[in-house]
Request: fold
Amino acid sequence: MKSLNHILALALCMLMSTACSGNKQQENNSESKGIMNKDSKAIVVFFSHAGDNYAVGNIEVGNTKIVADYITELTGAEQFEIVTHKYDGMAYNPLIELAKEEAKKGELPEYEGDVDLSKYDVVFIGGPVWWGTYPQVMFTFFKKHANDMKGKTVIPFTTHEGSGLANCVEDVEKAFPGANVTKGFSIYGHEVRTEKVKVEKWIRNIEH
Reply:
């Protein structure tokens, strides 16, 4: 009888332990890992190239634009698209050669319009990777807003076909030394239309 009582006691302990573990796991799963506090305001600043793109051909909506739209959908962030018509209608190879020359010479192409960043706490910055970093037109934006990012959380992201983040995070850190620049996110351009889940996972895991 003593042995039977001992076995029953062990079984009861195991059940209680399992129940406690289950409750703890459920509690952990319910923890919020949202990228912003409820009072934070975010914006996605991005450049995206439609037309002839490597691996995806001639597209009407640029790869980075699709990711920017996902971010807006998931977070409620506003958007400012860096728009220049300098590259309109160009085939991929001539475009990349032009981008190479711009980077080599440090050119700063103009873009349309602008945005007041003072009301935002979080700034996502995204674009394709051209020759190891963002397109030069984005550096035009960086220069104009070099003093506007102090104290803000800046989150870089890229679309690419093998370059990953390249030097984009480091270049954002140099452009905005007063900002809190987080680690970046990159996704293959040919995946953006079918792998939204990767963006969702990234957003869930950003903490600040």
Summary: The first strand starts at residue 42 and ends at 46. The radius of gyration is 23 Å.
